[in-house]
Amino acid sequence: MTCENDAIALVAGGAGFIGSHLIDALLGRGWRVICLDNFQTGRFDNVRHLEREPRFDVCEADIIDPLPVRLARSRVPITHVFNLACAASPPHYQADPEHTLLTSVVGTHHLLQLAEQRGARFLLASTSEVYGDPEVHPQQESYWGHVNPIGPRACYDEGKRAAETLSFDFLRTARVDVRVARIFNTYGPRMRADDGRVVSNVITQALAGDDITIYGSGEQTRSFCYVDDLVDGLLRLMTHEQDYRGAINLGNPHELKVHELADLVVAMTGTRSIVSYKPLPIDDPRRRRPDIGIARRVLGWSPRVHLEVGLEKTIAHFAAEARAAADLPFVRSAVRRARSTGARRSTPSTVVAHYER
Ligand SMILES: NC(=O)c1ccc[n+]([C@@H]2O[C@H](COP(=O)([O-])OP(=O)(O)OC[C@H]3O[C@@H](n4cnc5c(N)ncnc54)[C@H](O)[C@@H]3O)[C@@H](O)[C@H]2O)c1
Protein backbone atom coordinates (compact mmCIF):
# COMPACT_ATOMS: atom_id res chain seq x y z
CA MET A 1 0.00 0.00 0.00
CA THR A 2 1.24 3.47 -0.89
CA CYS A 3 2.28 5.56 2.06
CA GLU A 4 -0.43 8.20 2.47
CA ASN A 5 1.91 11.10 1.67
CA ASP A 6 2.74 9.49 -1.70
CA ALA A 7 -0.90 8.97 -2.56
CA ILE A 8 -2.33 10.86 -5.52
CA ALA A 9 -6.07 10.59 -5.90
CA LEU A 10 -8.15 11.39 -8.93
CA VAL A 11 -11.60 12.35 -7.66
CA ALA A 12 -14.12 12.32 -10.49
CA GLY A 13 -17.14 14.38 -9.45
CA GLY A 14 -14.91 16.22 -6.97
CA ALA A 15 -16.70 19.57 -7.33
CA GLY A 16 -19.97 18.02 -6.18
CA PHE A 17 -21.46 17.80 -2.72
CA ILE A 18 -19.81 14.59 -1.44
CA GLY A 19 -16.74 14.82 -3.71
CA SER A 20 -15.70 18.20 -2.34
CA HIS A 21 -15.88 16.97 1.26
CA LEU A 22 -13.90 13.88 0.27
CA ILE A 23 -11.21 16.11 -1.28
CA ASP A 24 -10.97 18.16 1.94
CA ALA A 25 -10.48 14.94 3.90
CA LEU A 26 -7.85 13.56 1.49
CA LEU A 27 -5.84 16.79 1.54
CA GLY A 28 -6.16 16.81 5.33
CA ARG A 29 -4.45 13.39 5.35
CA GLY A 30 -1.58 14.60 3.19
CA TRP A 31 -2.72 13.23 -0.19
CA ARG A 32 -2.39 15.07 -3.48
CA VAL A 33 -5.68 15.39 -5.35
CA ILE A 34 -6.81 15.98 -8.91
CA CYS A 35 -10.49 16.92 -9.16
CA LEU A 36 -12.06 15.89 -12.46
CA ASP A 37 -15.51 17.37 -13.09
CA ASN A 38 -17.74 18.65 -15.88
CA PHE A 39 -19.51 21.04 -13.47
CA GLN A 40 -22.92 19.71 -14.47
CA THR A 41 -24.17 19.75 -10.87
CA GLY A 42 -20.88 20.49 -9.14
CA ARG A 43 -19.83 24.05 -8.33
CA PHE A 44 -16.46 25.72 -8.33
CA ASP A 45 -17.53 27.36 -5.06
CA ASN A 46 -17.27 23.93 -3.40
CA VAL A 47 -13.50 23.85 -4.01
CA ARG A 48 -12.75 27.59 -4.21
CA HIS A 49 -11.12 27.50 -0.75
CA LEU A 50 -8.45 25.18 -2.25
CA GLU A 51 -7.43 27.54 -5.05
CA ARG A 52 -4.03 28.21 -3.48
CA GLU A 53 -3.44 24.64 -2.29
CA PRO A 54 -0.34 23.32 -4.16
CA ARG A 55 -1.43 19.69 -3.69
CA PHE A 56 -4.74 20.32 -5.45
CA ASP A 57 -5.58 20.60 -9.13
CA VAL A 58 -8.82 20.85 -11.12
CA CYS A 59 -9.36 19.31 -14.53
CA GLU A 60 -12.60 20.18 -16.29
CA ALA A 61 -13.77 17.26 -18.42
CA ASP A 62 -16.70 14.95 -18.99
CA ILE A 63 -15.94 11.31 -18.23
CA ILE A 64 -18.12 10.06 -21.07
CA ASP A 65 -15.52 11.54 -23.43
CA PRO A 66 -12.02 10.08 -23.81
CA LEU A 67 -10.09 11.35 -20.79
CA PRO A 68 -7.95 14.47 -21.31
CA VAL A 69 -4.50 13.66 -22.64
CA ARG A 70 -2.85 15.28 -19.63
CA LEU A 71 -4.51 12.63 -17.47
CA ALA A 72 -4.43 9.65 -19.77
CA ARG A 73 -0.82 10.05 -20.93
CA SER A 74 0.74 12.12 -18.20
CA ARG A 75 3.48 10.63 -16.10
CA VAL A 76 1.82 11.87 -12.93
CA PRO A 77 1.31 8.66 -10.99
CA ILE A 78 -2.31 8.26 -9.92
CA THR A 79 -2.56 5.80 -7.05
CA HIS A 80 -6.30 5.94 -6.35
CA VAL A 81 -9.32 6.72 -8.51
CA PHE A 82 -12.56 7.71 -6.77
CA ASN A 83 -15.50 7.71 -9.16
CA LEU A 84 -18.22 9.96 -7.75
CA ALA A 85 -19.10 11.55 -11.08
CA CYS A 86 -22.84 11.36 -11.66
CA ALA A 87 -25.71 13.73 -10.96
CA ALA A 88 -27.36 12.23 -7.89
CA SER A 89 -30.69 13.97 -7.42
CA PRO A 90 -33.71 12.86 -9.49
CA PRO A 91 -34.47 16.24 -11.14
CA HIS A 92 -30.84 16.57 -12.19
CA TYR A 93 -30.21 13.02 -13.38
CA GLN A 94 -33.59 12.86 -15.15
CA ALA A 95 -32.96 16.14 -17.02
CA ASP A 96 -30.67 14.28 -19.45
CA PRO A 97 -31.20 10.55 -18.87
CA GLU A 98 -29.00 9.46 -21.75
CA HIS A 99 -26.06 11.43 -20.35
CA THR A 100 -26.71 9.97 -16.89
CA LEU A 101 -26.63 6.39 -18.17
CA LEU A 102 -23.52 7.02 -20.27
CA THR A 103 -21.79 8.67 -17.31
CA SER A 104 -22.21 5.52 -15.26
CA VAL A 105 -21.39 3.06 -18.04
CA VAL A 106 -18.97 4.70 -20.50
CA GLY A 107 -17.55 7.10 -17.90
CA THR A 108 -16.91 4.33 -15.38
CA HIS A 109 -15.26 2.26 -18.14
CA HIS A 110 -12.89 5.13 -18.95
CA LEU A 111 -11.93 5.53 -15.30
CA LEU A 112 -11.44 1.79 -14.81
CA GLN A 113 -9.15 1.73 -17.85
CA LEU A 114 -7.17 4.63 -16.38
CA ALA A 115 -6.89 2.81 -13.05
CA GLU A 116 -5.69 -0.30 -14.87
CA GLN A 117 -3.03 1.66 -16.81
CA ARG A 118 -1.72 3.25 -13.62
CA GLY A 119 -2.09 0.25 -11.32
CA ALA A 120 -4.39 2.44 -9.19
CA ARG A 121 -7.06 1.33 -6.78
CA PHE A 122 -10.60 2.22 -7.84
CA LEU A 123 -13.63 3.12 -5.76
CA LEU A 124 -17.10 3.38 -7.27
CA ALA A 125 -19.71 5.53 -5.54
CA SER A 126 -22.70 3.32 -6.18
CA THR A 127 -26.05 3.80 -4.52
CA SER A 128 -28.86 2.26 -2.50
CA GLU A 129 -30.91 2.85 -5.67
CA VAL A 130 -29.48 -0.45 -6.98
CA TYR A 131 -32.01 -2.02 -4.56
CA GLY A 132 -34.85 -0.07 -6.25
CA ASP A 133 -38.12 -0.11 -4.30
CA PRO A 134 -36.90 -2.89 -2.02
CA GLU A 135 -38.96 -5.92 -1.01
CA VAL A 136 -36.41 -6.79 1.67
CA HIS A 137 -35.88 -4.65 4.73
CA PRO A 138 -33.35 -3.55 5.88
CA GLN A 139 -31.30 -3.88 2.72
CA GLN A 140 -28.32 -6.21 2.84
CA GLU A 141 -25.66 -6.32 0.15
CA SER A 142 -26.79 -9.83 -0.81
CA TYR A 143 -30.20 -8.48 -1.94
CA TRP A 144 -30.34 -8.21 -5.75
CA GLY A 145 -32.93 -5.45 -5.82
CA HIS A 146 -36.31 -4.56 -7.27
CA VAL A 147 -35.64 -2.03 -10.00
CA ASN A 148 -37.94 -0.91 -12.82
CA PRO A 149 -35.58 -1.03 -15.83
CA ILE A 150 -37.72 1.23 -18.05
CA GLY A 151 -39.00 3.88 -15.61
CA PRO A 152 -37.77 7.47 -15.27
CA ARG A 153 -35.31 6.51 -12.52
CA ALA A 154 -33.78 3.68 -14.58
CA CYS A 155 -31.08 5.88 -16.19
CA TYR A 156 -29.59 6.29 -12.72
CA ASP A 157 -30.46 2.96 -11.06
CA GLU A 158 -29.58 0.74 -14.01
CA GLY A 159 -26.58 2.91 -14.83
CA LYS A 160 -25.17 2.33 -11.35
CA ARG A 161 -25.97 -1.39 -11.55
CA ALA A 162 -24.06 -1.58 -14.85
CA ALA A 163 -21.19 0.44 -13.32
CA GLU A 164 -21.02 -2.14 -10.51
CA THR A 165 -21.04 -4.95 -13.11
CA LEU A 166 -18.15 -3.39 -15.02
CA SER A 167 -16.19 -2.76 -11.82
CA PHE A 168 -16.56 -6.35 -10.64
CA ASP A 169 -15.58 -7.65 -14.09
CA PHE A 170 -12.33 -5.66 -13.84
CA LEU A 171 -11.85 -7.08 -10.33
CA ARG A 172 -12.61 -10.69 -11.32
CA THR A 173 -10.08 -10.54 -14.14
CA ALA A 174 -7.50 -9.07 -11.73
CA ARG A 175 -7.14 -5.90 -13.80
CA VAL A 176 -8.00 -3.42 -11.04
CA ASP A 177 -8.36 -3.58 -7.26
CA VAL A 178 -11.96 -2.39 -6.97
CA ARG A 179 -14.03 -1.11 -4.03
CA VAL A 180 -17.77 -0.44 -4.34
CA ALA A 181 -19.74 1.68 -1.87
CA ARG A 182 -23.54 1.55 -1.96
CA ILE A 183 -24.30 4.96 -0.56
CA PHE A 184 -27.61 5.68 1.15
CA ASN A 185 -29.14 9.18 1.53
CA THR A 186 -26.43 11.58 2.57
CA TYR A 187 -26.88 15.20 3.60
CA GLY A 188 -24.84 18.15 4.81
CA PRO A 189 -23.40 21.52 3.83
CA ARG A 190 -22.76 22.12 0.08
CA MET A 191 -25.93 20.33 -0.97
CA ARG A 192 -27.68 22.42 -3.60
CA ALA A 193 -30.90 24.19 -2.72
CA ASP A 194 -32.41 23.14 -6.04
CA ASP A 195 -31.48 19.47 -5.98
CA GLY A 196 -34.99 18.32 -5.13
CA ARG A 197 -33.89 15.98 -2.32
CA VAL A 198 -35.95 15.77 0.82
CA VAL A 199 -33.43 17.32 3.23
CA SER A 200 -32.64 20.33 1.02
CA ASN A 201 -36.32 20.83 0.11
CA VAL A 202 -37.56 20.77 3.67
CA ILE A 203 -34.83 23.06 5.01
CA THR A 204 -34.99 25.67 2.24
CA GLN A 205 -38.78 25.80 2.43
CA ALA A 206 -38.71 26.07 6.23
CA LEU A 207 -36.13 28.87 6.14
CA ALA A 208 -38.19 30.80 3.60
CA GLY A 209 -41.47 30.29 5.44
CA ASP A 210 -42.89 28.48 2.40
CA ASP A 211 -45.20 25.49 2.61
CA ILE A 212 -43.12 22.35 3.18
CA THR A 213 -43.84 19.86 0.43
CA ILE A 214 -44.11 16.21 1.33
CA TYR A 215 -44.57 13.75 -1.48
CA GLY A 216 -47.00 10.96 -0.65
CA SER A 217 -48.31 10.49 2.89
CA GLY A 218 -44.95 11.18 4.54
CA GLU A 219 -45.07 7.67 6.01
CA GLN A 220 -42.31 6.51 3.63
CA THR A 221 -38.98 6.15 5.42
CA ARG A 222 -35.44 7.25 4.71
CA SER A 223 -32.24 7.08 6.70
CA PHE A 224 -29.94 10.07 6.57
CA CYS A 225 -26.17 9.92 6.89
CA TYR A 226 -24.17 13.05 7.63
CA VAL A 227 -21.55 13.73 4.97
CA ASP A 228 -18.54 13.59 7.36
CA ASP A 229 -19.53 10.06 8.39
CA LEU A 230 -19.94 9.02 4.77
CA VAL A 231 -16.54 10.43 3.78
CA ASP A 232 -14.94 8.53 6.67
CA GLY A 233 -16.57 5.35 5.32
CA LEU A 234 -15.33 6.02 1.77
CA LEU A 235 -11.76 6.54 3.01
CA ARG A 236 -11.84 3.37 5.08
CA LEU A 237 -13.25 1.45 2.12
CA MET A 238 -10.57 2.72 -0.25
CA THR A 239 -7.67 2.03 2.13
CA HIS A 240 -8.62 -1.22 3.89
CA GLU A 241 -6.44 -4.29 3.39
CA GLN A 242 -9.02 -6.96 4.33
CA ASP A 243 -9.88 -9.76 1.92
CA TYR A 244 -13.51 -8.72 1.49
CA ARG A 245 -14.20 -7.40 -2.04
CA GLY A 246 -18.01 -7.29 -2.34
CA ALA A 247 -20.08 -4.09 -2.43
CA ILE A 248 -20.51 -2.42 0.97
CA ASN A 249 -23.48 -0.40 2.21
CA LEU A 250 -22.58 2.98 3.67
CA GLY A 251 -25.43 4.82 5.31
CA ASN A 252 -27.11 5.55 8.60
CA PRO A 253 -29.34 2.74 9.83
CA HIS A 254 -31.46 5.15 11.88
CA GLU A 255 -34.77 5.08 9.98
CA LEU A 256 -37.12 8.04 9.98
CA LYS A 257 -40.48 8.80 8.37
CA VAL A 258 -40.31 11.73 5.97
CA HIS A 259 -42.95 13.67 7.93
CA GLU A 260 -40.87 13.17 11.11
CA LEU A 261 -37.94 14.82 9.35
CA ALA A 262 -40.20 17.74 8.38
CA ASP A 263 -41.44 18.07 12.01
CA LEU A 264 -37.86 18.12 13.28
CA VAL A 265 -36.78 20.82 10.81
CA VAL A 266 -39.86 22.90 11.63
CA ALA A 267 -38.97 22.70 15.34
CA MET A 268 -35.27 23.46 14.75
CA THR A 269 -35.86 26.46 12.47
CA GLY A 270 -38.86 27.83 14.38
CA THR A 271 -40.57 28.39 11.03
CA ARG A 272 -44.29 29.07 10.68
CA SER A 273 -44.36 26.93 7.51
CA ILE A 274 -47.12 24.40 7.17
CA VAL A 275 -46.82 21.00 5.51
CA SER A 276 -48.53 20.42 2.16
CA TYR A 277 -48.84 17.02 0.51
CA LYS A 278 -48.29 16.14 -3.17
CA PRO A 279 -48.52 12.81 -5.04
CA LEU A 280 -45.58 10.44 -4.67
CA PRO A 281 -43.31 10.42 -7.77
CA ILE A 282 -43.28 7.26 -9.86
CA ASP A 283 -41.11 4.38 -8.52
CA ASP A 284 -40.27 6.32 -5.35
CA PRO A 285 -39.01 3.78 -2.77
CA ARG A 286 -41.28 3.33 0.28
CA ARG A 287 -38.65 2.14 2.74
CA ARG A 288 -34.92 2.60 2.93
CA ARG A 289 -32.56 1.46 5.64
CA PRO A 290 -29.09 0.00 5.20
CA ASP A 291 -27.88 -3.08 6.98
CA ILE A 292 -24.33 -1.95 7.78
CA GLY A 293 -23.11 -5.21 9.35
CA ILE A 294 -20.41 -5.66 6.68
CA ALA A 295 -19.19 -2.05 6.99
CA ARG A 296 -18.92 -2.52 10.76
CA ARG A 297 -17.06 -5.81 10.43
CA VAL A 298 -14.74 -5.10 7.49
CA LEU A 299 -14.16 -1.37 7.92
CA GLY A 300 -14.85 -0.88 11.63
CA TRP A 301 -17.21 1.88 10.44
CA SER A 302 -20.51 3.18 11.71
CA PRO A 303 -22.01 6.68 11.59
CA ARG A 304 -21.38 8.89 14.63
CA VAL A 305 -23.07 12.22 13.89
CA HIS A 306 -26.56 12.56 15.38
CA LEU A 307 -29.30 13.77 13.07
CA GLU A 308 -29.93 16.97 15.06
CA VAL A 309 -26.22 17.86 14.99
CA GLY A 310 -25.95 17.25 11.24
CA LEU A 311 -29.17 19.11 10.54
CA GLU A 312 -27.99 22.11 12.54
CA LYS A 313 -24.88 22.40 10.31
CA THR A 314 -26.94 21.88 7.17
CA ILE A 315 -29.52 24.48 8.19
CA ALA A 316 -26.66 26.93 8.86
CA HIS A 317 -25.30 26.25 5.35
CA PHE A 318 -28.62 26.94 3.63
CA ALA A 319 -29.24 30.02 5.79
CA ALA A 320 -25.81 31.40 4.78
CA GLU A 321 -26.53 30.70 1.08
CA ALA A 322 -29.89 32.45 1.30
CA ARG A 323 -28.24 35.44 3.01
CA ALA A 324 -25.52 35.59 0.35
CA ALA A 325 -28.14 35.45 -2.40
CA ALA A 326 -30.17 38.16 -0.68
CA ASP A 327 -27.08 40.39 -0.91
CA LEU A 328 -27.10 40.19 -4.70
CA PRO A 329 -28.61 43.38 -6.15
CA PHE A 330 -31.20 41.62 -8.33
CA VAL A 331 -32.30 39.48 -5.40
CA ARG A 332 -32.66 42.53 -3.16
CA SER A 333 -34.94 44.16 -5.71
CA ALA A 334 -36.94 40.92 -6.15
CA VAL A 335 -37.39 40.72 -2.38
CA ARG A 336 -38.54 44.35 -2.28
CA ARG A 337 -40.99 43.72 -5.14
CA ALA A 338 -42.34 40.61 -3.42
CA ARG A 339 -42.76 42.47 -0.14
CA SER A 340 -44.56 45.36 -1.80
CA THR A 341 -47.01 42.96 -3.47
CA GLY A 342 -47.68 41.29 -0.10
CA ALA A 343 -46.07 37.95 -1.04
CA ARG A 344 -45.20 35.57 1.81
CA ARG A 345 -41.59 35.27 2.98
CA SER A 346 -40.95 32.85 0.15
CA THR A 347 -38.94 35.01 -2.22
CA PRO A 348 -35.38 34.39 -0.99
CA SER A 349 -35.55 30.62 -1.48
CA THR A 350 -37.30 30.94 -4.83
CA VAL A 351 -34.59 33.27 -5.99
CA VAL A 352 -31.85 31.10 -4.52
CA ALA A 353 -33.19 28.20 -6.55
CA HIS A 354 -33.26 30.35 -9.68
CA TYR A 355 -29.76 31.69 -9.02
CA GLU A 356 -28.36 28.21 -8.39
CA ARG A 357 -29.63 26.87 -11.69
N1 LIG B 1 -25.85 12.30 -2.05
C1 LIG B 1 -26.40 11.12 -1.86
O1 LIG B 1 -27.29 10.97 -1.00
C2 LIG B 1 -25.94 9.92 -2.67
C3 LIG B 1 -26.59 8.70 -2.44
C4 LIG B 1 -26.19 7.60 -3.20
C5 LIG B 1 -25.14 7.70 -4.10
N2 LIG B 1 -24.54 8.90 -4.29
C6 LIG B 1 -23.47 8.95 -5.29
O2 LIG B 1 -22.38 9.74 -4.83
C7 LIG B 1 -21.82 10.49 -5.91
C8 LIG B 1 -21.76 11.96 -5.53
O3 LIG B 1 -23.07 12.41 -5.25
P1 LIG B 1 -23.38 13.91 -4.80
O4 LIG B 1 -24.55 13.88 -3.92
O5 LIG B 1 -22.13 14.56 -4.38
O6 LIG B 1 -23.88 14.51 -6.20
P2 LIG B 1 -23.44 15.83 -6.96
O7 LIG B 1 -24.39 15.99 -8.09
O8 LIG B 1 -23.28 16.95 -6.00
O9 LIG B 1 -21.99 15.43 -7.48
C9 LIG B 1 -21.76 14.75 -8.68
C10 LIG B 1 -20.58 15.42 -9.37
O10 LIG B 1 -20.28 14.72 -10.57
C11 LIG B 1 -20.13 15.66 -11.62
N3 LIG B 1 -20.48 14.96 -12.88
C12 LIG B 1 -21.68 14.47 -13.25
N4 LIG B 1 -21.59 13.85 -14.42
C13 LIG B 1 -20.30 13.96 -14.82
C14 LIG B 1 -19.59 13.54 -15.97
N5 LIG B 1 -20.19 12.87 -16.98
N6 LIG B 1 -18.27 13.84 -16.06
C15 LIG B 1 -17.63 14.52 -15.06
N7 LIG B 1 -18.27 14.94 -13.95
C16 LIG B 1 -19.58 14.66 -13.83
C17 LIG B 1 -21.06 16.79 -11.28
O11 LIG B 1 -20.76 18.02 -11.91
C18 LIG B 1 -20.86 16.87 -9.75
O12 LIG B 1 -19.77 17.67 -9.41
C19 LIG B 1 -22.68 10.23 -7.14
O13 LIG B 1 -22.04 9.27 -7.94
C20 LIG B 1 -23.96 9.65 -6.57
O14 LIG B 1 -24.57 8.73 -7.44
C21 LIG B 1 -24.93 10.02 -3.60
UniProtKB/TrEMBL annotation:
<dbReference type="GO" id="GO:0070403">
    <property type="term" value="F:NAD+ binding"/>
</dbReference>
<dbReference type="InterPro" id="IPR044516">
    <property type="entry name" value="UXS-like"/>
</dbReference>
<dbReference type="InterPro" id="IPR036291">
    <property type="entry name" value="NAD(P)-bd_dom_sf"/>
</dbReference>
<dbReference type="Pfam" id="PF01370">
    <property type="entry name" value="Epimerase"/>
</dbReference>
<protein>
    <submittedName>
        <fullName>NAD-dependent dehydratase</fullName>
    </submittedName>
</protein>
<keyword id="KW-0472">Membrane</keyword>
<dbReference type="InterPro" id="IPR001509">
    <property type="entry name" value="Epimerase_deHydtase"/>
</dbReference>
<keyword id="KW-0325">Glycoprotein</keyword>
<keyword id="KW-0333">Golgi apparatus</keyword>
<keyword id="KW-0812">Transmembrane</keyword>
<feature type="domain" description="NAD-dependent epimerase/dehydratase">
    <location>
        <begin position="9"/>
        <end position="251"/>
    </location>
</feature>
<dbReference type="GO" id="GO:0005737">
    <property type="term" value="C:cytoplasm"/>
</dbReference>
<keyword id="KW-0520">NAD</keyword>
<keyword id="KW-0735">Signal-anchor</keyword>
<dbReference type="GO" id="GO:0042732">
    <property type="term" value="P:D-xylose metabolic process"/>
</dbReference>
<keyword id="KW-1133">Transmembrane helix</keyword>
<dbReference type="GO" id="GO:0048040">
    <property type="term" value="F:UDP-glucuronate decarboxylase activity"/>
</dbReference>
<keyword id="KW-0456">Lyase</keyword>
<keyword id="KW-0210">Decarboxylase</keyword>
